Amino acid sequence: MLKRLVFGAVFLAQPVMAEQLLVNDALDAHILPRYEVLAESTAHLHDAAQTSCASNAPDLRQAFGQAFDGWVGVSHIRTGPSEENERAFAIAFWPDTKGFTPKSLATLIRDQDPVVQDPVEFKTLSIAARGLYALEFLLYDPAFVSEAKEGYHCDLVKAITTEIARNASEIRNAWQSYQAKLREPSPDGPYRDETEALREVYKALGTGLQFTADARLGRPLGTFERPRPKRAEARRSQRSLRHVEVSLQSTYELALILSQTELDIRQSLRLAFDRAFELAAALEDSDFSGVADPMARFRVEVLQQSILRIMDILTLELAPALGVNPGFNALDGD
Amino acid sequence: MTTRRAVLKGIMASGLLARASWADAGAPKYLSAGRRPNGSYAVYGLSAHGSIQFEIPLPGRGHAAAAHPTAPMAVGFARRPGQFALVLDCLMGSVRQWLAAPKDRHFYGHGAFSADGSLLFTTENDFENAEGRIGVWDVFNGFRRIAEFSSGGVGPHDIRLMPDGAALVVANGGIETHPDSGRAKLNIPTMEPNLSYVSLSGDLRETEALPKELRKNSLRHLAVNSAGHVAIGAQWQGDPKKDVPLVFTHKMGGALHAIEASMNAQSGFEGYVGSVVFDATGQAIAATSPRGDRFAIYDLADGSHKAFQTPDVCGVAASEQGVVASTGQGVFLAAKTSGAQELSSAPVQWDNHLIRL
Fold first, then answer.
1. Out of B178, B189, B290, whose CB is closest to A329?
2. Which of A8, A69, A17, A62 lies closest to A250 in space, CA to CA?
3. Domains of chain B by residue range
4. What ipTM goes with this model?
5. Interface test with B, best of A329, A331, A332 (most B CBs within 10 A)
6. How much is the pTM?
């Protein structure tokens, strides 16, 4: 770590080089290894489902949890390979505001649709019926669970895990060539210079934190008058709070990489993330069902505030220091 | 001057604002929202050269405005998800009235008046049902809300009156949002934007959707020329580097037509168009991209186009000679296919839209 800091100090005099150093570091120490973890954990999930497909099989549930952790750890990195062919959405379709996932699954099961026997055909199904959130229904929702060791439920579990693993492996493989576009920006490439490459990486950080604050926490919080505990992400597997924590850990990793040449900002970020981790650890509300209770709700709101505080440091301090501050209108998105 | 002002005050006192005309308002040519150096927000009346004619403080960030067709008044909209709109008195430089979004609705940031100025139509979100609505307000009865109807899709953003005065064209951006989750986009993988034409009483006349591979292209901003051609500016919700068209034209009864030169790779728009407008001739379309730091003018008559690099450019409106554009760095410039020229610079960050009065 010390070496890296010295490096940063040396390169400060040459801002263009420093930018590329940060991008390369983000690729080597964050993006590529985390997509590798996703590919491996989803391959393991696929293997586990082949061995035991019953909803209550401990190995399968454990592999499901690890694969989901793997996904949440990359869910903010939405660039290039994950967006091609809807791969990311096929792994993770959430939020599902219209309840497409349970509807699609119920239809498949009712019709005993043979599509589960054909991986190529399965790819053409609605993304709502595929991916980790669909699998969660099959493993945890009382309306969908089955302890049978064979039959349609079992085939569906296997088809879904096969497809998740294939998508994760495709994203990992595609990054092998895509990374050059970020490492060697060129006027003809998608990133024309080092600043654009760095901005793309920086954007992932903001995207992840915003999604956690607005969707992972904002959706179950609803309003004081109308809390929405049933809108919590992955509440059936009691993973709602865990997703917030895993995503915070992953974005923290990226924040430390991107702030390595800005020691004061890095320290502010450390403190702000520490605060968020402490609040999350103290919550003891794994599925956010407490949002309807005023005191428990207050603790979730404070956690949300702590994430907004991290985002303030990013937009007011880190982005200007890195020179990736988007313009007033460019940022707006409307 | 004193006399004139006294007269105007008299008009105000008698509540006859609707009878005063735009010529009385120091003849501002454009309206724009903006951010001041101290971080507060305001809406501005601007001259043809972008100099500030009046300034009205806003409680939060603005987005767009709709100018009344006859009276010197405009309705400014808060940035999405806005709970309020402001009726601006452009003679006095003041807020005349606040319009609150009804319960379970919020404004999207755009609105349009009927041809006689008696009705205001606002794009709104029925967020519990994730359905786009058009609110109808009775202008001359104190902006009383009198009706609402479907926008024909999800996430209606811009809305314009068609030149025959009998229909509205609405850009249903397709993106579902809910105020509980801020500006988070909740349905990107399943979004289905469309362009809808509705009568003033809410009858759906026509809906045009994009082909499946372009379903993530949120149709957002609109311009209409006197012949009823509609220009549409899109915001791509997939990978911003994907080569998709971002500016379309449409005529009722026809199909959506993509402007080739607006493809991401050629235009450098980064998947994002902030505003579109027809120039005064109605023969050319200008589109801005603050994310690409550039804008372009497309001449529909001969198919030529010209692009300009301008940091954070977003607002654009027709001018006598071509178009004017504004930037988040306070620059106000004029452009036509032969070139662009800075007209003025202000210590205000001009926001998304420039409204011609």
1. B290
2. A69
3. 18-220+231-272
4. 0.88
5. A329
6. 0.91
